[in-house]
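so i finally got all the pieces together for this one. its two components total, 514 residues if u count the protein bits. some of the lines might not be protein, just check the labels. i wanna see the whole assembly predicted at once instead of chain by chain like last time, that was a mess tbh
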Amino acid sequence: MNDANQAAYGQTDPGRRWVNLLLGSGLVASIATFLYPAIRYIIPTEVAESTSRSVVAAKVTELKLNTGKIFKFGSKPALLIHSVAGDWKAFSAVCTHLNCTVQYRADRHDIWCACHNGVYDLSGRNVSGPPPRPLEEFEAHVQGEDVVVTRNA
Amino acid sequence: MPNLYRHILAWLDERFGTGSVEEFLRHKTVPQHRHSIWYFFGGMTLFLFVVQVLTGILLLLYYRPTPNDAYESVQYIVTQVRFGWLIRSVHSWSANLMVFTAFVHMFSVYFLKAYRKPRELTWITGMLLLFITMGFGFSGYLLPWNTLAFFATKVGTEMAGAVPFVGKWMLTFLRGGEEVTGATLTRFFGFHIAVLPGLATTLLAIHLLLVQHLGMSVPPGVERAIAEGREQARSMPFFPNFLLRDIIGWYAALGVLGALAAIFPWELGAKADPFTSAPAGIRPEWYFLFMFQALKLLPPKILFLEGEFAGLLGFSLAAAVWVVVPFLDHRAGFGRVTRFFTGLGVFVLGFMGVMSLLALR
């Protein structure tokens, strides 16, 4: 039998078509089972978010008036500010634009992201540049010698 | 000696059919005309790629891809290892020159319409190689684990997260988690030394085979001048005449690389610390500056889209159009130059230039 005949036979013979279908779908299914573990492997398992709702961000004596400090809140950086007026303020330090870490600018009394020149005021509102949303604000209060920052539930 | 040489060739020919390659080389010619200089940039990019592979292998002997060791191991390479400073600086400089020559190659092919029929696939594989080159740059930038690289990676991968539906998945895939951490470094290292080199080598083989198979394109203007008898069709043998000229260029490039590495050694910066603010003056590598600047200028909201997403969408669409340009500019296939596509090229080049300059201000 030549190739053309064989191809025609494969297309017309119903038994042959069944066998092709079964073999084909078996092959596809087996390839899927080979790929599935590989795809699952590529995506890392999620690490549970730190559940701590409050953290000691700094000692009261550590920050002079009109300064800021980056501290670790859960797995992300956060910003503690001791304002000119003497208030303590705390925000997420993750810029809402593209994830950079913001800083307190003492000369302009605002919060600034160096990556794309985004500016927030001391309430965390995005006032200029590309950030689309305000910074998440945390509660900061003095407990003895410590400044404790708490995430609102 | 020549006898032994001929013997070996005959032996190989019997087993591989190398005679046909020899025959091919003997007849291969390169057209000669006023734009011939642009033919050298592809070969130069290839040469710099080879330099990257060799210096990259040397760096692998000492580099350690973990957040605790990466910075220190690069520091060790440039301060303790004999000629480590040279190897590392040549790798960085050659990377930058390679991106530059790849862009020159791409734009010269664009403006001389060398992408037109039947070289569509050469253009597409070339564009893919250019994207891979930028991927090499982006992934390699992080490996020394310094502050600049850390934040550049944060921003770059965050942009992937802005893609609808698959964004979150892509971001996790790239970072190896939700944040840029040691997991990201390990992944980027894998991309940089295994995944991308494999892809690049395969595409490069196809690209070079196509170039050999189709020969060099003659620009439409020159083609017309020859057809109308205003110019004589001239050419030179590829082997050895053109290749020797290539080699002179490569030799000069080695000298330039050595000089750049010695006079302007590549800086290492400060070690990355995930819990510091992004430093002032932060910016990505120069070939991403135009995107960086455009994103900086975009307002937070454009119509109903977030600014960063709108920007990303714009760049993706532009890149897609650029890749399929041989099919859009089908008149070029008949040797006709369409003003629109030349104008588009000038606009793109101008946009990239102006945005980059604005970012450097």
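Residues 182-214 of chain B form the longest helix (33 residues).
The mean pLDDT of chain B is 92.
anyway lmk what u think
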